[in-house]
Amino acid sequence: MDGLISDLIRRGESSEEADQILVKLRQIPSKEDRTRVENLQLAVTTVIISVYLSSVSAGNPIFPQGYPLRLVTVVPSLFLIGKLTLATLRPFYDNIWLKRVDFVLLPFLFAGSFLGSGGLLFATLVEIPTPVLGVILSQISEFVRAYLYKDRLINLYTLLIIVSSGWYAWRSGKSMSVIESGVPEVRFTFTSGSSDSSLPLRIENPTANQIDPTNVEIEIWTESGIEVTDIDGARRVNDRVWQPYMPIQPDAGMTLEMQIQRTEGRSEISESSATVEVRLDGLVQQRHRVLLEG
User: Fold this and answer.
1) pLDDT of residue 289
2) What are the tens digits of pLDDT across the range 183-201?
3) Residue 82 — very low, low, confident or very high, per pLDDT cuts 50/70/90?
4) Which of 135, 166, 192, 238 has a CA 20 to 30 Å removed from the CA of 268?
């Protein structure tokens, strides 16, 4: 069944029966680290656009005829516009799709503009102070000018940039847990004739460090007709948030039992749902929508 849950998490889809929710915690970069990376990306992108505009204004464009200009003009511009737009929207509308754009799409645009501009390094080499290094780089530059800008090689180079940028975007999204933090659905059926039941929540720590229970938060929202009355193995922080009693050991895990109960004297449920969100250090690890019926 673990394989089923893993598939649900990976695909971000399902309405299939499941006997537990599986969450694998991962260390996500801190806000300071993310800010540092974003500032570097913004600085590099600004330099790319500035150099291009300066060269055009001077009447000496540095980009050879036939070079894929979108990689070094339109793409970095879209990256800057995207960052500015998200910086304006995120404080007021923190939606999962905005996070996907911020942590997946924008890194893809940045990598594409950076790698596309990097190809010009060898094509625009000028005099190098070190004679031996200057000769070597000049020969590389001549080779690039002679062969790289042929139509077929330009297309091949563009394809290589797209593939590399896609890999970079995937790694970025993976490190930020955006891909897994959609709302994969897990269908759970109450035992016939009962007013309450339990659903196991398995939290695993695949890292090499012990995770303090105060750093883990489990927040649950329920629709009318059902409520989570308790989580065995966790303490209630407020109406919707729980924290484990015990630390999660390295390369280990714990199973918490979510106690789910019908409310308002209802004898049956038809497609009610609960949303279970697990956070580590305040950052979302995974979010699940649990469909309940019975």
Assistant:
1) 82
2) 677 777 765 555 667 888 9
3) very high
4) 238
SS3 assignment for the chain? CHHHHHHHHHHCCCCCECCCEEEECCCCCCHHHHHHHHHHHHHHHHHHHHHHHHHHHCCCCCCCCCCCHHHCCHHHHHHHHHHHHHHHHCCCCCCHHHHHHHHHHHHHHHHHHHHHHHCHHHHCCCCCCCHHHHHHHHHHHHHHHHHHCCHHHHHHHHHHHHHHHHHHHHHHHHHCCCCCCCCCEEEEECCCCCCEEEEEEEEEECCCCCECHHHEEEEEEECCCEEEEEEECEEECCCCEEEECCCECCCEEEEEEEEEEECCCCCCCCCEEEEEEEEECCEEEEEEEEEEEC
Phi, psi (rounded to 5 degrees) for 81: -60, -40
pLDDT at site 5: 35
Strand order in the sheet with 241-244: 185-189, 283-293, 272-280, 216-222, 241-244, 234-236
Q: For residue 168, what pLDDT is reported?
A: 93
* Contact (CB, 8 A) for 250 and 262: no
Q: Which of 25, 71, 68 is nearest to 286 (CA)?
A: 25
* pTM > 0.70: yes or no: no
Residue % of the chain over a pLDDT of 70: 67
The tokens for 207 are 């890292």
What's the confidence (pLDDT) of residue 109? 92
Please tell me the distance from the alpha carbon of residue 8 to that of residue 16, in angstroms, as a whole number.
Answer: 9
Q: Is the dihedral of CA 25, 26, 31, 35 positive or negative?
A: negative
Q: How far apart are CA 265 and CA 244, in angstroms?
A: 30
Whole-number Å distance between alpha carbons of 292 and 272: 5
Length of the chain: 294
pLDDT-wise least confident of 15-19, 54-58, 85-89, 193-197? 15-19
